Every structure is written in C-alpha cells, then in structure tokens.
Amino acid sequence: MHMFQYAAAQGGNGIVGIIVPFVIMFAVFYFLLIRPQQKKQKNRNSMLRELKKGDKIVTIGGLHGTIVELTNDIVVIRVNDVTKMTFDRSAISHSVASSATE
Q1: 10-residue block means of pLDDT along the chain (102 residues)?
Q2: How many structural domains does the chain have?
Q3: What does 38-100 look like in DSSP terms, one character per residue?
Q4: Do 29 and 59 have their domain in common?
Q5: How remote is the C-alpha of 66 from its chain's centroid?
Q6: Which residue ranges traverse the bilayer (predicted)?
Q7: From CA 13, how far away is CA 58, in angstroms rounded?
C-alpha cells in the first residue's frame, strides 16, 4: 500500500511539472508578443479616428498627401495641386507632423 501512495504522489507531481512550463511559456508570449501588439493596434485605431481635413499623411504604400475629404471608411488625399486620390482609411500608415514638413 505504501508503494501505491508513493506512485500516486509522484504522478500528480509529474502533471504539475508538465503544466507549469506551459503556463510560464504562455505568460512570456503574452507579455512579449500579444500585449505589445494589442497596444500598437489600439494606438493605430486612435490615430485613424483622430484624422481630420488638412492632416498630412503617408499611406502604407509610401504615398504622401494631404487629406481633402474624409468619411468613416474613405479618405481622399491631395497629392499635388491637381491630383486627388481615394484610399480606404485603413490604408493610412501614419500622420506626419506639420512642423516636420515646414
């Protein structure tokens, strides 16, 4: 009977020994990969919501322009004096600070 109790206790310890590294691995992945990605996505969504007419932007493709019209999904940008182009709002990479371009 004593041998059976020892084996049962050792088996329970083995399962904990297997699960603990997976929990630690998940925590590392969460803090190093998942959480920073969620924060970056939140900042990007905030930037896209705060866009307004006259903002200088850069598209994902690298095209620079100034916002002329803006809806919930569509952005029309002026590339030069006469050329206007229409993009999805999600195609905007980032907004350029006006002081940096002057």
Answers
A1: 50 78 92 93 93 94 94 94 93 77 41
A2: 2
A3: HHHHHHHHHHHHT--TT-EEEETT--EEEEEEE-SSEEEEESSSS-EEEEEGGGEEEEEPHHH
A4: no
A5: 24
A6: 12-34
A7: 56
